[in-house]
Structures are given as C-alpha cells and as structure tokens.
Amino acid sequence: MFAAICVQAMGCGKSSVQPLPLDTPVSDDQVRFVCMSDTHSNAAYFSNVLPPGDVFLHAGDFTYHGLPSEVEKFNEFLGNNKCRLCCFFCWFRLQK
Fold it and tell me: What pLDDT, in 10s, does the model give residues 56-93?
C-alpha cells in the first residue's frame, strides 16, 4: 500500500534510488518520499504505520463515493501525517 524510498546524491550529477526500511530515521542529506495509492476512504487506518518522510505522495482514488465527508476525513489525515510536504494526485471513476 505504501513505500518509502530515498534519493541520495552520489556526486558528478549521479543519483540512486534505494528502498529503505520503514523505521529508518529521516536524514538531512536525503529526501524520503512516502507513497500511497487508492486508499478509498481507508487512509486513516494507516496513520500508525506510515513512516515519517519529507514528501508524502498519494495517487489514485482516496474516496469511495466522492462525498464531502470523505474528502474532509482525507484532509484531516493529510494534516496529521508525519511528512513535511503533502501532494496528492486524485481522480474519481464514475460507474455507468
């Protein structure tokens, strides 16, 4: 459901991306991205296990029905996570 990765400068314009254990502390010389997708109104269930990071990215559906109450709960989740910056990319599929 989510992953933490680290981007570390290696000199000469080169960089590498390496997976990190979820309990690795945030470092000043690295950028940690914490990623989730398609939580469908369940993001808050992961609050206790979501690692700290610099940038939190959420992609995909974050609600079941697109109700204002679901959006408010997701907004509360974003405000309470352990990352310095939050970005989300959302879409909602309408069933025909």
Answer: 999 888 888 889 999 899 999 988 888 888 888 876 65
Quickly list H helices, 29-82: 68-80
- Let me know if 29 is exposed, middle or buried by CB neighbors in 10 A (0-12, 13-18, 19+): exposed
Structural domain range at position 53? 2-8+28-89
18 in a structural domain: no
Tokens of 30: 């690295």
The DSSP call for residue 71 is: H
E strand residue ranges, 1-96:
2-9, 15-19, 31-37, 53-59, 83-89
Phi, psi of 54 (to 5 degrees): -90, -45
